[in-house]
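Dissemination and training. As part of the outreach component of the grant, students in the summer workshop were shown how a complex can be specified as a set of sequence lines and then modelled as a single object. The example used during the hands-on session is reproduced here so that future cohorts can follow it. Participants entered these lines:
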Amino acid sequence: MSDQQLTAILLLSCPDQIGLVARISKFIADHGWNIIDIDEHVDIDDDTFFIRASWNLDGTSMSTKQLKEAFVPLGSELNANWKINFRHRKQRTAIFVSKYDHCLQEILWRYSLGEFNIEIPLIISNHPDLESLATHYNIPYYVFPITKSYKREQEEKELALLHKHRVDSIVLARYMQILSNDFVNRFPNRIINIHHSFLPAFVGANPYKQAYQRGVKIIGATSHYVTEKLDQGPIIEQDITRISHRDKLDDLIRKGRDLERLVLARALQYDSENRVLVHGKKTIIF
Amino acid sequence: MSDQQLTAILLLSCPDQIGLVARISKFIADHGWNIIDIDEHVDIDDDTFFIRASWNLDGTSMSTKQLKEAFVPLGSELNANWKINFRHRKQRTAIFVSKYDHCLQEILWRYSLGEFNIEIPLIISNHPDLESLATHYNIPYYVFPITKSYKREQEEKELALLHKHRVDSIVLARYMQILSNDFVNRFPNRIINIHHSFLPAFVGANPYKQAYQRGVKIIGATSHYVTEKLDQGPIIEQDITRISHRDKLDDLIRKGRDLERLVLARALQYDSENRVLVHGKKTIIF
Amino acid sequence: MSDQQLTAILLLSCPDQIGLVARISKFIADHGWNIIDIDEHVDIDDDTFFIRASWNLDGTSMSTKQLKEAFVPLGSELNANWKINFRHRKQRTAIFVSKYDHCLQEILWRYSLGEFNIEIPLIISNHPDLESLATHYNIPYYVFPITKSYKREQEEKELALLHKHRVDSIVLARYMQILSNDFVNRFPNRIINIHHSFLPAFVGANPYKQAYQRGVKIIGATSHYVTEKLDQGPIIEQDITRISHRDKLDDLIRKGRDLERLVLARALQYDSENRVLVHGKKTIIF
Amino acid sequence: MSDQQLTAILLLSCPDQIGLVARISKFIADHGWNIIDIDEHVDIDDDTFFIRASWNLDGTSMSTKQLKEAFVPLGSELNANWKINFRHRKQRTAIFVSKYDHCLQEILWRYSLGEFNIEIPLIISNHPDLESLATHYNIPYYVFPITKSYKREQEEKELALLHKHRVDSIVLARYMQILSNDFVNRFPNRIINIHHSFLPAFVGANPYKQAYQRGVKIIGATSHYVTEKLDQGPIIEQDITRISHRDKLDDLIRKGRDLERLVLARALQYDSENRVLVHGKKTIIF
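and obtained this result:
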């Protein structure tokens, strides 16, 4: 695991031009670091260049701060949006839940196996129901009941708590409340939601019921970043399962559960490994 | 093939009650026929019973007309909608196309292998482009260019031609015209369309472009019966394929072609084997 | 749930002949019961008929014993293998595990949701590792370490325990011991195993390593009934997932875990709902 | 399309070391070319580095020969296996067929749409059956009947013909003869086969029959490069489809046809776009 602790990951986007890969890989090589993985993409619709590069920092004497500073000149030259993360600096992720346990179960179990490169400092819920599950995994569980009149107030408390725990990102694991725009804008593209339909089909409430009534032959689940517009954020991952006329609404819900937890887990994995770049309404998954 | 020629297929729906399978299977057994396949379903939302039964007519001296008449009393008793088809009486199916050849290619190739239990007496198009393909398979090809002002007139001619060829059903194999309600109502649930999206997502024009702009990770295709409401008819079959940020609009179109032809072929196969019962906005596929 | 408690399920196979569906459905109707579901199949290779029928026992005054006796004459006439189960008489299923927890987690979680029509009276393991998980779900956990010299002795003790708990069937949830033939023959087609490959590819030990070395593009998992021949029993369910050259052996193991637990869960569900008939080396899944 | 005509594609493998991406991308940038796509991989089992890079040659005055020569020093320094292809220099691919038409149909239809970056100068068969299909697409069709005693002689004639047509690669589109080792060794990793099973399951003859008898729930198809050992070559692509007890051997063959043609088409596409690197018994698909 020691080599994992010394891995840097660059995510960068900038206007396309000749020689970008060369300049970025030269920056890495000039410091004597070895590239582990490099992947790039050009969006030909608007001539934007995207890259993810990871490299081994073995033997370096630079601090993470120095390393980031070392990249500033090149980043400016390229007029780039960029960030550098380090594998040993795990993202701090809060989980929001309500009453359904399947997504939380899945995340905590995989978390216990080390499948995600995250720390989960706390779980927040509007219901007390899943506390024992949190306890089983030794994670603090906070309850903030939400009512229309207290929503703003409760969100303020949640934000304070998230700040105190230095939370970088949030996973809505079937959290059944709509976050306010103020809240969402505090975590731009840092809130991952799971929607239980194949978006953009069946936006909003009760998508399984909608799917059942429409008589589709396939149901889906979609994980996306939360934006101000409900169920319209950039899609990270989707998957589907086949159904038939024999499947009643309950069967859709049951089969959908398996989709939801797998799709959400994959989205969280991509995000936690710094594989996702958001570009407008879309994502690039490296 | 001789046993195939002596197979009867019943499709029936009626209000649910005790003993339906027993009474229907007794009707078959009492005539000395052997059931090949039986499949039933009860829609618990409205207590409706559905059944498909096929049986071997070997050694029977009844004509198909007599056989149908023999079922009338039971059908009435059960207050049922029903039809009996015979495998050797192939459905007569017209294909409508425009300029894209992939769905037509697929259907004609499978037709030449005997995969569908249909006869294709003619192909109708609003463009002359695919005539040579029709000729290759020795199927008459008629061109009816469609303009706004002539649409009604042309549809009348098409209907006359379909009538003359005793056509039972129609496949729209990427036919790029919207049929008038008058036309559609002449073939209730007898017109099969292929829509190049995962309905109900991306209704209407340019679904691949819509999918590309939304940034979905999966695209689909949907085959459905045509009703008066565009892309709202009962869904027969759907399938999907995975895409990524690397796929440009052209790639979606290319990958979608493979979906469209397979999904349409499956829908036509189910329909031609009398496996489909329409129930409101949904289908039961036996 | 009350209607569920009064459901009978017949599984039957016999030599094919005319009128079987009629006679069986007449038996049900003559008692005033309503068929919920009927599904049949004929294996044309050896003229064998298979049927699964379930019906509602509402209002009946017969005991389950009387009901079974009532079917004996027809069963004999048809020269059939048959059994009748009742939904309210849940199958008693023991789980065998070793150290991997993913399949056990999945089964216990679904069990807690009521997804399987089973009771789990005990868990048996050759290691103490997963006891806390069993405790979390309040299921007794027994440890029988296995060594070559003590295997027979330990199996005897396990069999005694299974007998005491009136166990009907066993799930090997990644149990890493090979059961003796004596043991297997005590539960013919009543032991469900999960093998972590797409059988018959990669029989035996370390299938992921075999798959990795062969360079396949897809890995699979297979759930089957255990017979005397290793990994050769009748297959109940299989599924696959796509991999690429980027996936190292660890990734195959990780991705395979998700397959294993879903495939095993589906197999157990089919089995627990009396949907599986074994026919030689194959299964019919109704 | 003009930019397509000026694209170079490098495929390279060499012992891993620090700075490889930097040095290769610098080579490209130093000539003023813009990278379109770059993808790399390190096999950690034997420390081997693999890269595929494509770049735009717009405005260059170098010939393809000069360009290759320009890379020689770097290739030598890195102790690399490498080749550079140009999109406008299409690979010349011969198709071998026997009597089944589905794979040939698929390839020729996609070829007519421009989906593959190949030229097909000729089709070779051991039977005359598919000549009319070749004629429809205006491709010369040569028949070399194969018998045990004439096999060597016929293969010599085929090789002469392939040489005359400057053929780079061969697609066995359900060609039902086993090529001699001599023949195979003339086209190392340049012969693409489609095997109608999920390899390594069901090697050899009649895989669908083997699958049917084993009672699998999923069937597959595998496209691989041909080596001396039957069905053991490096796998390029695989896919599967679900079957059930209702599917008879004929259904497996019918469903398998759809798999075979799609899997073979994908393999040919990857190969024709220079996306495949062979590493021992495995492939890297960029």
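Chain C has a mean pLDDT of 94. Students were then asked to discuss how this feature might be tested experimentally.
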